[in-house]
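dumping this here so i dont lose it again. seq + smiles for pyridoxal-5'-phosphate
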Amino acid sequence: MSRTMSSDHATSQILPTYKPKAPHFVRGEGCHLWDSEGKHWIDALAGIAVNGLGHNHPRLVAAIAKQAAEVLHVSNLYRHPAGEELAHKLCGLTHMDRVFFSNSGSEANECALKIARKAAWLHNQEHPNDMRGSHLVALKGGFHGRTLGSLSVTSTPRYREPFAPLLECLFVAPEDFAGLEEALSTHPAALILEPLQGEGGLISLSNEFLQGARELCNQHNVVLIHDEVQSGCGRTGTFLCAEAAGVQPDIVTLAKPLAGGLPMGATCVSEALGQILEPGDHGSTFGGGPLASCAALVFLDEYETGLAQNIAARGEQLTKGLDALVASSDLLKERRGRGLMQGLVIPGRAAEFEAKAFEAGLLVGTSAGDVLRLVPPYVLTAEDTDSILNHLKTVLTSMDTTS
Ligand SMILES: Cc1ncc(COP(=O)(O)O)c(C=O)c1O
């Protein structure tokens, strides 16, 4: 079937919230893509940290085709085994007790914020002399999504300003423990943070800060939400990034790679908060449907039967390779991140680097202006990793000579 596509995106009828580039990808295999002109691309961006199983994963494709031929969608008014099995598996992996399924990271965060707000509301009814506020606390540099609730806890002024007024939120700088204590002492409904800030420039919060935030939330009776939409589902070498700090939040949100490329968000909740939402309090027509759930079951099974080890091995290879690049060039200031969520700080020239990599057939992203972001598929091989590093080296050499 032929499809119409205007020659220029500016003339297409899609709202101009993105500026998509020209290649029209027609085929994929693992970390590799081919466009309609036959050009080969290596994918170190994975649809912005989504395609954990890479492109055209045979087991994923077969499971989706099978489920589509059985039932695609039934709504949440009827039980279906894939969703229940997935909730059970996710609770095991996140050490949580209940899950709400939605369709994106923003929606996963909306649900988390609503649970915290309702918990505060219930608390206030029972304890009128010890009131909790409905406001929220979040970190500067944090990104939690574009819907109005998740935007309210996202700090970037440019994203927020046109849409004010938003929910009330106090912002604290990462690692500012005194500032966090002051903000939490105002009795907010929740603290939300990313253990490794993706959009904010690949900033890892220290174990001490994550542990201290947990203690302060306990002291002040504040719900702690970890947004692991980008850092979770194994990307940093453990299923949850905050596992490395030994910190268990009250709620953790996941999305991106969870359903192998199909839209899915998950809000995973502790038992104590698992009963806060009742029928009618929240919902989603599509969330956790049979198709996305069966895809997520394949993703988790692959993760548990070899992918986790591959992430560790490739993460180490990538870390060593990027460290060597940083050591070899004055253009690169620093490597950040861990596992398969890595950044290279290129002051003032990250966008130029990304554009040159693109010309050379390597897909990477940028973050916070100065950081080149690599979030490749989890299925990348040792050869793919070498190929990504070689492309980066070539671009770097060309830029070193033009600086
Ligand atoms: C940490 C984090 N939270 C939330 C979101 C929003 O997810 P979505 O775009 O699926 O709504 C993102 C997206 O990049 C993210 O990186």
